[in-house]
Amino acid sequence: MKRLILALDVYERERALEIAECTADYLWAVKVNWPLIIGSGLGIVTELKQVTGLPVIADLKLADIPNTNGLIARRVFGAGADYVIAHGFTGRDSVKAVMELGETIIVVEMSHPGAREFIQPATDKLIELTNELEPFGVIAPATRPERVSYIRSRLKDGIKILTPGVGAQGGKAGEVLKAGADYIIVGRSIYESENPRESARRLHEEILGV
Ligand code: BMP
């Protein structure tokens, strides 16, 4: 089973397409974030889908009023994105505005140290919101497997857990999958490596071994 998501945080269109194409065999999906959209335009979503045949996750971390979230999400789903990531802290109405347009992933906790300041204290409420709205999945930190276990234990069955933070941020694929993650999100350890295909293959093997 494929459980690896490539975080394609480069600016350049050609580099992005090249890395996505050569790693696609080992991926479940490709995630695009602001750097790639700013550098290459929204059309990259459509192109990545054509080149890889994989789902594309638009990691926009939408955090606005419902109308603005909806205006953004409509265009991004329209470009072919299969999933859009939204923050939950802006409230149910803002998240629902995205969910009405397509499959949504809600941030319930982040992987960086600063997440402890404001996001982690709100995780329980964000889990509650998620269980009520039942989106496709949530973002949780691969850098803190114990938090992934905690989130898993409180999340409704069927809601997927996607975890960034493996590799460059210090998280370990095996540990976070054992803690309950469904997918791992990896960026720099793949796209900055000398051989992105080989790096993706190794991570895929590690996943299969769990
Ligand atoms: P990297 O493997 O290079 O650290 O990339 C991780 C990716 O996941 C980046 O696109 C980052 O924006 C995203 N991400 C994260 O690292 N932590 C989070 O809590 C949420 C994220 O979306």
From TrEMBL:
Keywords: Decarboxylase, Lyase, Pyrimidine biosynthesis. It is an enzyme of class 4 (lyase). One of its GO terms (cellular component) is cytosol. SUPFAM superfamilies: Ribulose-phoshate binding barrel. Homodimer. Substrate binds at residues 9, 31, 59-68, 111, 164-174, 187-188. It holds the Pfam family OMPdecase. Gene3D superfamilies: Aldolase class I (3.20.20.70). Its EC number is 4.1.1.23. The lineage of its organism: Archaea, Methanobacteriati, Methanobacteriota, Thermococci, Thermococcales. InterPro entries: Aldolase_TIM, OMPdecase, OMPdecase_arc, OMPdecase_AS, OMPdeCOase_dom, RibuloseP-bd_barrel. One of its GO terms (biological process) is 'de novo' UMP biosynthetic process. This is Orotidine 5'-phosphate decarboxylase. Pathway: Pyrimidine metabolism; UMP biosynthesis via de novo pathway; UMP from orotate: step 2/2. It comes from the Archaea. It catalyses: orotidine 5'-phosphate + H(+) = UMP + CO2.
